[in-house]
Design a protein that fits this description.
By secondary structure, the chain is mainly alpha-helical. It has one domain. The protein has nine helices and no strands. Helix 2 (19-43) packs antiparallel against helix 3 (48-75), helix 3 packs antiparallel against helix 5 and helix 7 runs antiparallel to helix 9 (156-181). The protein starts with a helix and ends with a helix.
């Protein structure tokens, strides 16, 4: 497909996808990356647990930036670069599986002190941040289930709602993790 055809197709099938939407979509990625940076820092020096959490986190963040880049290309009129959009789910799922593997390894090796984690997370105001974050993620799940993938991927208004919700949720998780770290 020629560049001009790709440009036209991208703007016609994704009307309303702007640079602003791409920038709003970058916020949850940045907040999530910050959260995992704080967690990975707390795990530094723990060998395999640290390595798995970092590798998984990098994959998750890269997948998020692929999606942001896809929206940025649409917003700039470059076109619909499908590979950036299609990489999102497999890279995100793989990254989360690797991160969870690191947490499992850390639990088995008793590197993660869950009693301290729970005491910190359940303290005020940390728990409020996490509750708001979980409510936001619940809304994100609802948005996804109430819309088919094709509609969700092409409707700018739904994307704005979802990304603002996701940004607030990830921002609250990040704030909660920062507060828990210093608790």
């Amino acid at each position: 497909m020629a560049n001009e055809e790709r440009k036209v197709r991208g703007t016609e099938t994704h009307e309303g996808f702007t640079v602003g939407l791409a920038l709003v979509d970058a916020l949850p990625v940045i907040f999530f990356g910050g959260s995992l940076t704080v967690i990975a820092t707390a795990l530094s020096g723990t060998g395999l647990t640290f390595a798995l959490v970092v590798i998984g986190a990098v994959l998750v963040v890269l997948s998020g930036f692929c999606k942001v880049s896809w929206k940025m290309c649409l917003g700039l009129g470059i076109g619909d670069i499908q590979i950036l959009n299609k990489m999102f789910v497999p890279a995100m799922a793989t990254g989360f599986m690797i991160t969870v593997s690191g947490i499992v390894v850390g639990t088995i090796k008793k590197v993660i002190k869950w009693n301290l984690v729970f005491a910190s997370v359940l303290s005020a105001p940390v728990i409020i941040c996490f509750l708001i974050g979980f409510c936001g993620m619940g809304l994100m799940s609802y948005f996804r289930k109430s819309n088919d993938k094709e509609t969700f991927d092409h409707d700018a208004k739904k994307n704005w709602i979802a990304q603002i919700t996701n940004g607030i949720a990830q921002g609250m998780f990040f704030l909660g993790i920062l507060l828990a770290k210093f608790n």
